[in-house]
Amino acid sequence: MITKATTYHVPVLLKESVDGLNIKPDGIYIDVTFGGGGHSREILSRLGENGHLYSFDQDADAEGNLGNRYEVSGVNGETEKNDKNAPNGDTGKPSSSSPSPFTFVRSNFRYLKNWMRYYGVDHIDGLLGDLGVSSHHFDDESRGFSFRFDAPLDMRMNKRAGKTAADVVNTYEEERLADIFYLYGELKTSRRIAATLVNVRKQKQILTTQDFLNAVDPLFRREREKKDMAKLFQALRIEVNQEMAALKEMLMSAQELLAPGGRLSIITYHSLEDRIVKNIMKSGNAEGKVQQDFFGRSECPFRLINNKVIVPDNEELANNPRSRSAKLRIAEKK
Questions:
Q1: What is the pLDDT of residues 34-57, one digit of tens each?
Q2: Which three-class secondary structure state does DSSP give residue 175?
Q3: Which of 181, 156, 167, 126 is closest to 246 using CA atoms?
Q4: CA-CA distances (angstroms) from residue 75 to 13, 57, 63, 245?
Q5: Is the separation of the CB atoms in 7 and 136 below 8 Å?
Q6: How many beta carbons lie within 10 A of that of residue 82, not counting itself?
Q7: What is the C-alpha separation between 145 and 183, in angstroms, rounded?
Q8: What distance in Å separates the CA atoms of residue 30 and residue 102, rounded to the nearest whole number?
Q9: Cα Rg for the chain, rounded, in angstroms?
Q10: pLDDT (tens digit, 9 = 90+) per residue, 306-325?
């Protein structure tokens, strides 16, 4: 029987990432990865009456972590009030007769600029992102993100739309599959894996995580099986959710929206996303190409706050396994 995860998500580098925003009580902030609401609650606890937080999440499951009085906007532009148990309920925020300091946006963060235009927000004072996959997704057997469980091969962050991992595995051409496994999983055996999947699916569609494991398991050496399987699942997940493209779009929008002195605080978990974040913070573009003015001065729009990445301390590593590969980078708009 497939079971659901009971704890949605434990926030990683909570204090360090929110401290990195250098929050002004009356500022406007964005949490592009609401998840279990941990980072959003911490930001709200530091805002005054005139501050506001917009939090994004495309996963309908995340809405179960919302709070008693908030405004929520959906992908079709509809706006509604809600009266569930609050992300602001434990922060001393306004009563039901006062405007909410919090707006939840039910959308992929790649549409950040469109939503801020919708709300009439020209500039923000800070943006926080906790990238990757929440512990909820890995622990929920029904979502197909983990090879620990037999479940439909789905992997969509937004269950309401888009192709599933099964669609990718069963319909993509062999060369395209190989490219995905090489670029997003950094697997040297990507071509063998792709060829094997194409042969297997000719006999029977690959619809579950167990179907997928049965097809590729003979290709992995026992001593590296778990690591390589994790990379393979990562590659599929990134393709299904178009994570790299979405990340680039979001960061470029953030660059435009941030006011001078505004902060970008981003937690990454693997080299692909970390490289994009690092390049944009150091150069202003995802490729890492530093532009120079007539006098040879760098035209990067950011100033790095921490030249060396911030990583979890031993206590957090012991209490939150997901934090093992976490890296925090913080930059300030010039």
A1: 988 999 999 999 999 999 999 999
A2: helix
A3: 156
A4: 29, 11, 14, 19
A5: yes
A6: 15
A7: 19
A8: 10
A9: 21
A10: 989 999 999 999 988 888 99
pTM reported for the whole predicted model = 0.85
- Asked if 237 and 165 count as a contact pair (C-beta separation under 8 A), the reply is yes
Query: Are 104 and 73 contacting, i.e. CB atoms less than 8 angstroms apart?
Result: yes
Measured over the CA atoms of residue 296, residue 301, residue 304 and residue 310, the dihedral's sign is: negative
Q: What is the crossing angle of helices 209-216 and 190-203, to 10°?
A: 120
Rounded distance, CA 63 to CA 159, Å? 13
> Would you say the C-alpha torsion 278, 246, 122, 50 has a positive or negative sign?
negative
Q: Report d(CA 326, CA 294) in Å as an integer.
A: 38
Residue 331 exposed, middle or buried by CB count within 10 Å (0-12, 13-18, 19+): buried
Percent of the chain topping pLDDT 90 = 64
- Are the beta carbons of 39 and 11 closer than 8 angstroms? yes
Range 156-167 burial, b when 16+ CB lie within 10 A, else e:
bbbeeeebbbbe
Residue located via tokens 């990583």? 311
- Unique residue bearing structure tokens 């939840």: 104
Say which DSSP state 54 is in: E
